[in-house]
Amino acid sequence: MPVTSELAEAVSAGDRRALARAITLVESTRGDHHRQAEDLIDELLPTTGGALRIGITGPPGVGKSTFIDAFGSRVLDRGQRLAVLAVDPSSTAGRGSILGDKTRMASLAGRDDVFIRPSPSGGALGGIGRRTRDAIALCEAAGYDLILVETVGVGQSETTVATVTDLFLLLVAPGGGDDLQGIKRGIMELADLVVVNKADGDLAALAEQTAGDYRLALHLVRSKHPGIDTPVLTCSSTGGRGIDEVLVSLTELRDQLDASGALARLRADQAVAQLTDEIGSALFARAEADERFAACHRDLEQAVVDRTLSVSAAARQLIDVLFDRSPADGSA
Questions:
Q1: 183 DSSP 8-state letter
Q2: Which fold has domain 49-259?
Q3: Do 271 and 137 form a contact (C-beta atoms < 8 A)?
Q4: 3-class SS at 149?
Q5: pTM
Q6: Are the C-beta atoms of 178 and 85 separated by less than 8 Å?
Q7: DSSP code of 236?
Q8: First to last CA, the chain
Q9: Which of 11, 29, 252, 319 is at 20 to 30 A from 173, Cα to Cα?
Q10: How far is Cα 59 from Cα 176, in angstroms, rounded to an integer?
Q11: What is the average pLDDT score of the chain?
Q12: At what angle do helices 16-27 and 3-12 cross, to 10 degrees?
């Protein structure tokens, strides 16, 4: 039996070590590993697509890991299996702060029905899009019912995570005002649910006020789903208050989108976008392996650095070389 078939069987059986090995394989940038990863995903595709995929973002210090620990515990109480993919902007070698994340997910880290894994955003061959999508597919094939994709802050990578999940949760801290202005409009437009965390003790009243501020702000933002307002809730991750309401709201929203066909359309659009990303990455990788193209690329890079050629003109010339419509000496 081929190695990838053995690995696929182990993943399908729910073997967490096999799942970890499979994700390592799809994250690898080695050419032979890339082909093996393709075979593995192809073999497991019929068993994917059944999980609820939720992206969670928020400013550093808002308590994402603590929230996931409390939220995930509620998911497990319902008899579901949970996978957490922590998107990390560091390299695949460093693995970032996942050990710190696990210490803040004390209730989840030791559970057999939970899988916690960093999903690095650095590297080539598709970046976060291919690796995170494939990691999600592998977790679904392993039988996980709900997959959380945790990001590290509020920025461009977070909008990318929204393209691989069904629902996008924005976690914020009590404050409003300047904090609200710091949240980019694009993030607000992508959010399916806004949750004000740390709504306990002296911050409880401020959290309610902040929730009101976000509700007002969302009236000025285009609704992500026509006819469906973006809910704004409050919760206390440490005290457990409001966590059930968040889970209920997400489940109800997923059911609404599923019933209307919006969820199927969303996933179809995401699959097409993934194909486009893969084509671009594969074309560039194949082109860079050609000595003529690589030499022209270096020359044009220097021309851009020296400001003797515009970026758009350099890109056009490089594309012409790729499709063999111009000489490789950089002339127009």
A1: S
A2: Rossmann fold (3.40.50)
A3: no
A4: strand
A5: 0.84
A6: no
A7: -
A8: 53
A9: 252
A10: 13
A11: 84
A12: 130
